[in-house]
Specification:
The protein is an all-alpha fold. The protein has one domain: Mitochondrial carrier fold. It contains ten helices and no strands. It has helices at residues 13-49, 61-72, 81-95, 99-107, 115-145, 158-169, 178-205, 213-243, 252-263, 272-305. Helix 3 (81-95) runs antiparallel to helix 5 (115-145) and helix 7 packs antiparallel against helix 8. The longest helix has 37 residues, at 13-49. The protein is globular, with a radius of gyration of 20 Å. The two termini are 28 Å apart. Belongs to the mitochondrial carrier (TC 2.A.29) family. Solcar repeats lie at residues 11-105, 113-202, 211-296. Keywords: Membrane, Mitochondrion, Mitochondrion inner membrane, Repeat, Transmembrane, Transmembrane helix, Transport. It is a multi-pass membrane protein. This is Mitochondrial uncoupling protein 2 isoform X1.
Length: 308
């Protein structure tokens, strides 16, 4: 079998917390260009509707990546990476790393968790994560959406972005889009973690697979597809609202209604393919890495505590 074997002692909350943040950062490093392509496709119609200067038109996932490399250089695919890694260390650590602990609170220590307890745990950790990590998400989206060739760069660096947003839009500007982000992450967390949980449990209880890499891969891929399908409309609204200049939209609801009125219902699924490619691949890398990191850290802890 490839990878670490399951340990006799279940991983602690601290191991899950650190492991989730680390695994999410590794997944972000690998899939970040797909996320940037998704953001560019999601805000493309908005740019045209706002009547701003002409920018490159994007068509499809790989067409968007090719256009960005051609017009802005390869580094543009990693715009906002620093903020993205900051986000994952605070965001994923809470929403994924604390999921099992919160689930145990709702089940009151019962061995088998029902669907209701899993959904409640997913909503709780998702909302907690947004409250902690929202400023990093705002900065990440702003960096990914800015086009270097269109009248200069919006922000000169990650810290400059935090300072500029706070100065021009107030501290509340760093928490812009919190409502749609809470809604999105309640949906994403419930779909992603609960689907992964359910698929993995089903595979193990049916003896179709053992608790190893193929099982983790299959569960993660299924979770990525379900999450993209359900969360895409909220994700588009969240991205546009967080990226919008002050005064463009009065609220997230106004952003959604404007998008539907000017571009139609299909705008809700703009950037679906890069979203799926990104979420599918991100889920696979993150969950497989997370499972292995938990086992590796528990094995290392066991060897440290073992008597000589």
């Amino acid at each position: 079998m490839v990878g670490f074997k399951p340990t006799d002692v279940p991983p602690t909350a601290a191991v899950k917390f650190v492991g989730a943040g680390t695994a999410a950062c590794i997944a972000d490093l690998i899939t970040f260009p797909l996320d940037t392509a998704k953001v560019r496709l999601q805000v493309q119609g908005e740019t045209k509707a706002a009547g701003s200067m002409k920018t490159a038109q994007y068509k499809g996932v790989f067409g968007t990546i090719a256009t960005m490399v051609k017009t802005e250089g390869p580094r543009s695919l990693y715009n906002g990476l620093v903020a993205g890694l900051q986000r994952q260390m605070s965001f994923a650590s809470v929403r994924i790393g604390l999921y099992d602990s919160v689930k145990q609170i709702y089940t009151k220590g019962a061995e088998h968790a029902g669907i209701g307890s899993r959904l409640l745990a997913g909503c709780t950790t998702g909302a907690m994560a947004v409250a902690v990590a929202q400023p990093t998400d705002v900065v990440k989206v702003r960096f990914q959406a800015q086009v270097r060739t269109a009248g200069g760069r919006r922000y000169q660096g990650t810290m400059d972005a935090y300072k500029t947003i706070a100065r021009e839009e107030g501290i509340r500007g760093l928490w812009k889009g919190t409502s749609p982000n809470v809604a999105r992450n309640a949906i994403v967390n419930c779909t992603e973690l609960v689907t992964y949980d359910l698929i993995k449990d089903l595979l193990l209880r049916s003896n179709l697979m053992t608790d190893n890499l193929p099982c983790h891969f299959t569960s993660a891929f299924g979770a990525g597809f379900c999450t993209t399908l359900i969360a895409s409309p909220v994700d588009v609204v969240k991205t546009r609202y967080m990226n919008s200049p002050p005064g463009q939209y009065s609220s997230a609801v106004s952003c959604a209604l404007t998008m539907l009125r000017t571009e139609g219902p299909l705008a809700c699924y703009k950037g679906f393919m890069p979203s799926f490619l990104r979420l599918g691949s991100w889920n696979v890398v993150m969950f497989v890495t997370y499972e292995q990191l938990k086992r590796a850290m528990m094995a290392a802890r066991g060897s440290w505590e073992a008597p000589f």
